[in-house]
Every structure is written in C-alpha cells, then in structure tokens.
C-alpha cells in the first residue's frame, strides 16, 4: 500500500514524517536553533568582527544583532505579529540582512521576492501569502518600487503596510521602525522561517517553505563543503533573496563561519571587480551566463582579483569550456553547484580533479539526501542512465506552500520531490545534469533535448551565447530553432548544420532555423528565459 501524502499544517508547511524528523534530529542536521538565535550566537562568538559590508557601511556581528532586535521591536510596534507573512523585495542592500533577522526574531515570515519581479508575480505572491506588509527600496536599477506598491495595494486586500528602504514617498520609512529591544517569544525551529520563490521557468511562481532548522543546516553544511572560515570574504553579486546567494553558502553560510559578507549592487564586473579588490574577496557565486562576461572583463580590467579563491557556478548548466577557462583567467577554482530553492544541493569538491569540476555538477551535500533517477513510468533507471531526479532529505521540502493540487503531482506519495531535472549519476556519485524533463523540442515524433543541442551550438566559434527552442510547425509539430548571440561572424543555418553534423550529431537534431539576437532574455536571477525567448522569436518572420 502506498502511504497517504502528509497533510499540510495550518501554517502551510507539509511536515516530514515523525520518524524521519527524529532521525534528522539524532543526526544533528536539525539542531533546534532558529535563525534569530543563530545570530545571537554569532554575535557572542564573533563580536566585533565585520559581518557585513554594504554600501559605505561596515556592521560587526554585534551591531547586526542589535539592529535586528531594534527593527523587530519597530515591526512589532506596527502590529506585525508572529506567523504574519511579509513580502520582501529588496536588492542587495544592508537593510535586507537586518530585516531578515528581525523577522526571524519576531517569528514573522519573509516572502523573498526578487528585485526583477513586477506586478504579475508580486500580485500573485501577495495574494497567495496574504502578506500584511511589503518592503521595498525607493528606487533600484532605474525602477521606482513605490509605483509598484501603489499598484499592489489595489489588488492585495491583506496588505496593510508598505515600508521603504530610502525615501518613503507616501509610505513608511523602514528606518523609522526603530524601537527599544523587546522581549519576544522565540518561534519554533520547526516552523517556517522564510518562503522562497520557485525558480521554475514555467507557470506562475510557487512558494517554498523553509524551516529555521532546515535552512540553518543548509547554510552550515554548505559552509563546510565550501571550506569557509573566519577569513572568508563572500561577495554577494546575485540577488541575496535567491537561495544561492543567501544560503549556499552565501550570506548565512558565511555568518556560520564568522566571515564577512560584501554586498554588490549587481553582478556586473564593473560593480563586482572593485569590491573584490577593495575587500579582498575570497569567494563569490554567479549564474553561468555571467561568467563569459567576467572572463572578457578580466582581460582589460586592471582590478586586482588575486584574493579570489573560489568562483561558484550554478543555476543552469555551465559549459565545460567556460569552466576550464576560469582558473587561467581569474586565478581561482570553479565550484559547480547544482541546487534548487526546493532544497537539494550538489557541490563539486574544491579538491576534485579539474576535469570532474569542469564536467560534473557535483555530489549531494548530505549523507541523508536520498536520490532516485527514474524513467517516465517512475521506475528506477539502470545506474548511469539518464532519468528524472527525485529527492527527499533533511533540507528538501515535502510540499509547496498552499498548493495542494500541484503537490499531488510534484511529489511521490512517499515524499520524494520530482525535480523535473534530467540527470545521470557517475560511479563516483557525481551528477551530470542533462536537461529538463520539459525542455525538449518535439520535432517529427522525436523528443530532442534542448540542452544537448545547446552544448554543440555553444561550441561554434561564432556563437557567444545561444539557446535551442521549439517553435510551432504544422508539419512536424515543432521546428528546432537555434537562437544565437553572435561572437564575431555568426554562422548561417547551413554552416551551423554542417558544423553540428561534423560533431557527430544526428540529422534530426540539427536546427531548422537560426535567429540572431543581441541579448537573450533572462529570468529574475539571470538564467536564460526560454518562454520569453519563444515569444520573442515567434513575433519575427523566419529569416
Ligand atoms: C538554483 O535554484 P532555483 O530554484 O532558482 O532553480 C533550480 C533549477 C534546478 O532544478 C535546475 O533545473 C537548475 O535550476 N539548475 C541547474 C544547475 N543549478 C540549478 N541546472 C544545471 N546545472 C546546474 N549547476 O538555481 C540554485 C539554488 C541553489 C544553489 C544554486 C542554484
């Protein structure tokens, strides 16, 4: 008999089964600590060491702890109560970090939206979470978030407060929420600490509940896997509201080790390189589309990057060619990270051999991460074969937030999360990501992996960036379109087909059409946005 799927709690958290929870506690993965109490512990242990460098400001661990207490009191004064959801849409600025811990101290739950989200996503997330407050910057990257807040108020009935980091306009300044620290009841470490937004490129975003103790483990174990110490200086270039830069090991992992977090306003080399030089940054994280831009910039930018030890790459597939070029160009090691806001993290080890680092997406973080690789019928594939990755473990969710219908198909009855990622596992335990279950082009009865075609496309010297997409085609169902950002002279369709055939690719996987674009559209964290790309190219008539 298959076990019944567990019911979500009133908080929206789908709990782990009781015996599994006991096991995770016994193993020490779950240590009963809340994010708020962790900060208090770090303040005791690391005191006057610098926790955070943001803009012109440098905050010690003690100062960060004190500010979190004062903001928690200010929020409580506004009526923000334990369990309330607070929509947070802040860029990489100091108040993000203070707010995160202030909410943790209160037991209120941040919904971590990304700066690039707009009214469609924000409206949906506000209604889904029934958020009582919305925290924004005044302006960022040329966009006025107070206008977005005004629009949101019209469609989010539960929203009572708009709090602004910066000039508040008609709303309340976050800086004014400052009170004498209050004695606050500590939340339960098994409760939701934060809600992350799913990174999926299909459908509306979903919310991922992460508990205090599962997220604490996520950060602590990641810090260990990445060799962080009190000497670590982590540069957050990607949005800190994204799991990667927040806790893999990111901001929170760096704090567990007593290191220093430096916030960069953007991942552009022009912002990041001066910070790497000035703060002697030792580790940072990027999504793969940004790495070639850093490699190019490093050729002419005089900034001293010699402090950099590790460049983490994750979020989408990193090409082996780019991975191999990094040590020579930036003087650091690559660490591949195959992760998901839903939980599971895989890291290459810093001392894996260079080819393993260049060609695999790492191994699971935790000995109790349970992975299955299954075929379309849900049966385990022969070891080494490609299939969909299913996972459960001490920091992988058992259900999305308030999404009963979706949960019925996104999880197996025995609690595995169906990732939608196609992987194969090497005898060493390293994973290779082979694409997405749904990122295929269905051409003339064949299902073609976009990822496979892209690997060959990117190997062409005239292609700087590229993607393979399916476009509607009456005869064949879909036609395969190669979308190319040229690097030098782009190939013609015929040249590209000859080139790919020369690499041994089957004829039915060759592109039917090529389109050149100046830029590929990206998701809020910087991954290639296939849906937007299909829309963009569909509007053009074939070249
Ligand atoms: C990270 O998290 P999300 O939630 O934005 O996206 C997760 C999805 C994965 O399911 C996979 O499809 C893809 O992004 N992905 C990768 C990858 N890392 C993530 N695909 C190929 N190679 C990789 N290295 O993207 C994320 C979360 C934590 C750490 C790093 C990335």
Automatic annotation (TrEMBL):
What are the residue boundaries of the AMP-binding enzyme C-terminal domain, all occurrences included?
452-527
Identify the Gene3D superfamilies for this entry.
3.30.300.30, 3.40.50.980, Luciferase, Domain 3
A Pfam family cross-referenced in the UniProt record is AMP-binding
The segment(s) forming the AMP-dependent synthetase/ligase domain are 42-401
Protein name in the entry: (2,3-dihydroxybenzoyl)adenylate synthase
- Which organism is the protein's source? Streptosporangium fragile
């Amino acid at each position: 008999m298959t076990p019944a799927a567990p019911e979500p709690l009133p908080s929206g958290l789908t709990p782990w089964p009781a015996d599994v929870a006991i096991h995770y506690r016994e193993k020490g993965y779950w240590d009963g600590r809340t994010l708020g109490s962790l900060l208090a512990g770090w303040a005791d242990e690391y005191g006057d060491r610098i926790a955070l460098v943001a803009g012109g400001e440098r905050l010690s661990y003690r100062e960060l702890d004190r500010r979190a207490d004062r903001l928690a009191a200010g929020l409580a004064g506004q009526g923000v109560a334990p369990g309330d959801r607070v929509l947070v849409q802040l860029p990489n600025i100091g108040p993000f970090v203070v707010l995160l811990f202030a909410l943790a101290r209160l037991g209120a739950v941040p919904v971590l939206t990304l700066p690039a989200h707009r009214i469609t996503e924000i409206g949906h997330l506000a209604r889904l979470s029934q958020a009582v407050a919305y925290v924004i910057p005044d302006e960022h990257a040329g966009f006025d978030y107070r206008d977005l807040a005004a629009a949101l108020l019209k469609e989010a009935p539960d929203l009572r407060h708009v709090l602004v980091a910066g000039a508040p306009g008609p709303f309340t300044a976050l800086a004014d929420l400052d009170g004498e620290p209050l004695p606050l009841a500590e939340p339960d470490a098994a409760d939701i600490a934060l809600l992350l937004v799913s990174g999926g490129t299909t459908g509306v975003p979903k919310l991922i509940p992460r508990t205090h103790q599962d997220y604490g483990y996520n950060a602590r174990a990641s810090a260990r896997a990445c060799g962080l110490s009190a000497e670590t200086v982590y540069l957050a270039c990607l949005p800190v509201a994204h799991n990667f830069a927040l806790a893999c090991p990111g901001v929170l992992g760096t704090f567990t080790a007593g290191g220093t977090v430096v916030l960069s306003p953007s991942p552009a080399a022009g912002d990041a390189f001066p910070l790497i030089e000035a703060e002697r940054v030792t580790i940072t994280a990027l999504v793969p589309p940004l790495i070639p831009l850093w490699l190019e910039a490093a050729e002419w930018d005089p900034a001293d990057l010699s402090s950099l030890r590790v460049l983490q790459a994750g979020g989408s597939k990193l090409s082996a060619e780019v991975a191999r070029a990094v040590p020579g160009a930036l003087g650091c090691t690559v660490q591949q990270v195959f992760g998901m806001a839903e939980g599971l993290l895989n890291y290459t080890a810093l001392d894996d051999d260079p080819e393993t680092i260049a060609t695999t997406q790492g191994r699971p973080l935790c000995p109790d991460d349970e992975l299955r690789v299954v075929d379309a019928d849900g049966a385990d594939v022969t070891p080494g074969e490609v299939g969909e990755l299913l996972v459960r473990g001490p920091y992988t969710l058992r259900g999305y937030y308030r999404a009963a219908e979706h949960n019925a198909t996104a999880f197996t009855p025995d609690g595995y999360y169906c990732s939608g990622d196609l992987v194969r596992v090497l005898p060493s335990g390293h994973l290779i990501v082979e694409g997405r279950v749904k990122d295929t082009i269905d051409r003339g009865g064949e299902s073609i992996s976009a990822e496979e075609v892209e690997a060959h496309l990117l190997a062409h010297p005239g292609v700087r960036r590229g993607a393979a997409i399916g476009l509607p085609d009456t005869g064949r169902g879909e036609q395969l379109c190669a979308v190319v950002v040229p690097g030098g002279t782009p190939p013609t369709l015929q040249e590209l087909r000859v080139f790919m055939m020369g690499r041994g690719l089957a004829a039915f996987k060759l592109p039917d059409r090529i389109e050149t674009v100046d830029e590929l559209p990206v998701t809020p964290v910087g991954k290639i946005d296939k849906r937007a790309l299909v829309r963009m190219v569909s509007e053009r008539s074939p070249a």
